[in-house]
């Protein structure tokens, strides 16, 4: 028979117990999710916004580029005409100021539709990702974020390194897309000086739109992967320990010990009220020891007898004791006592099917009282 050898290393099993600092293995509760949302912690991928914004903006530019090129050419022709007729007398600050205002107004008219599309699309994409909810807590300044030590930790953390590698990889792939798009157009690039201004603008714009849409399509795949990653990361951050779930349950549902004490206090108060009403009873119907039901009949209060007190075991003994103190008759009727206890609540009238049985008991009690009064 082999003997059990004492291990060289001893282990404290308490380190494996689940406690306040235990492993977060439980799914987050709805309250935890709501609290995180109030603090601005939601699943959101910037790459999704980037991808759809790129495609939408370059599609919009492609749609309005004829108008843009026409306006630019018209503006440039107008400037050339003005400079042809200009001389030293009319070249002044007012002329330059007017020219600058016209240039700025042209830029605003060309950029405004694109800017409006970008703003509306950005708001729409954010709404689709996180919905609409005002979160004042997320807007409150957190002075802990100004801690330089924590800042350096974030800069040189594993997460920052991952983001750097991801950014470098995206830039490399974008450059590859740009290179592959331009590569087949070297001949056109070499003859741009032979083209008119209108042709150069149209060709350059078409090239930019082609590159933008290709980059946008590439970003859709990046956005899909990033959204899945952000969702998994968000779920992992929201996970809770078993102790956290217990603590939250206590906060929302109430501490079981406190609730038990409240119920006990309510029972005690109900017991006191019941004992205060007991002297009004006409008869106590018992089992004889396990059940006790106090019946009161007053035609001015109710057309049927009422159950004003009832109880089992200890409470039943208290009812009998109180009845004896107040000279109330105690009648043993096992089936009637059990039926009244289980079918009639305190303060309710007895059902019609028990009228006959209760009437016989009351008649017997009244006859005993009359007999006792005559003897007295």
From TrEMBL:
GO CC term (a single one): plasma membrane
Transmembrane segments annotated in the record for this chain: 42-65, 104-128, 161-180, 200-229
Principal subcellular localisation of the protein: membrane
Pfam family, one: Bac_export_2
Topological category with respect to the lipid bilayer: Multi-pass membrane protein
Annotated localization: Cell membrane
Keywords recorded for this protein, A-Z: Bacterial flagellum biogenesis, Bacterial flagellum protein export, Cell membrane, Cell projection, Cilium, Flagellum, Membrane, Protein transport, Transmembrane, Transmembrane helix, Transport
Gene3D superfamilies linked: 6.10.250.2080, secretion proteins EscU
Biological processes, Gene Ontology terms: bacterial-type flagellum assembly; protein secretion
Entry superkingdom: Bacteria
NCBIfam families noted in UniProt: flhB
PANTHER family: FLAGELLAR BIOSYNTHETIC PROTEIN FLHB
Family of the protein in this entry: Belongs to the type III secretion exporter family.
Biological function: Required for formation of the rod structure in the basal body of the flagellar apparatus. Together with FliI and FliH, may constitute the export apparatus of flagellin.
Protein name: Flagellar biosynthetic protein FlhB
Gene name of this polypeptide: flhB
């Amino acid at each position: 028979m082999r003997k059990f050898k004492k291990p060289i290393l001893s282990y404290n099993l308490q380190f494996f117990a689940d406690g306040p600092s235990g492993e977060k293995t439980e799914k987050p509760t709805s309250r935890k999710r709501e609290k995180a949302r109030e603090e601005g912690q939601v699943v959101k991928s910037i790459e999704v916004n980037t991808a759809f914004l790129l495609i939408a903006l370059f599609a919009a530019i492609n749609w309005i580029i004829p108008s843009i090129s026409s306006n630019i050419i018209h503006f440039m022709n107008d400037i050339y005409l003005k400079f042809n007729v200009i001389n030293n007398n009319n070249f002044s600050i007012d002329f330059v100021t007017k020219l600058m205002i016209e240039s700025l107004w042209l830029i605003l008219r060309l950029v405004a539709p694109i800017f409006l599309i970008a703003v509306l699309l950005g708001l729409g994409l954010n709404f689709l990702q996180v919905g609409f909810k005002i979160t004042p807590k997320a807007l409150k300044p957190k002075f802990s974020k100004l801690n330089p030590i924590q800042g350096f930790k974030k800069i040189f953390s594993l997460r920052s390194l991952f983001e750097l590698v991801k950014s470098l990889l995206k830039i490399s792939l974008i450059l590859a897309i740009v290179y592959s798009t331009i590569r087949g157009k070297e001949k056109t690039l070499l003859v741009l000086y032979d083209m008119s201004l209108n042709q150069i603008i149209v060709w350059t714009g078409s090239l930019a739109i082609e590159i933008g849409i290709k980059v946008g399509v590439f970003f859709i795949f990046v956005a899909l992967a990033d959204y899945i990653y952000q969702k998994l990361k968000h779920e992992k951050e929201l996970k809770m320990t078993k102790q956290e779930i217990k603590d939250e349950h206590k906060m929302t549902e109430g501490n079981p010990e406190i609730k038990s004490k409240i119920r006990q206090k309510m029972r005690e108060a109900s017991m006191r009220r019941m004992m205060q009403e007991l002297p009004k009873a006409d008869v106590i119907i018992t089992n004889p020891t396990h059940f006790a039901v106090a019946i009161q009949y007053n035609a001015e209060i109710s057309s049927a007898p009422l159950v004003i007190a009832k109880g089992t075991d200890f409470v039943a003994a208290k009812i009998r004791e109180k009845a004896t103190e107040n000279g109330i008759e105690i009648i043993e009727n096992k089936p009637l006592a059990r039926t009244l206890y289980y079918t009639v609540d305190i303060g309710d009238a007895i059902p019609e099917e028990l009228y006959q049985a209760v009437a016989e008991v009351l008649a017997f009690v009244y006859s005993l009282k009359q007999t006792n009064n005559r003897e007295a």
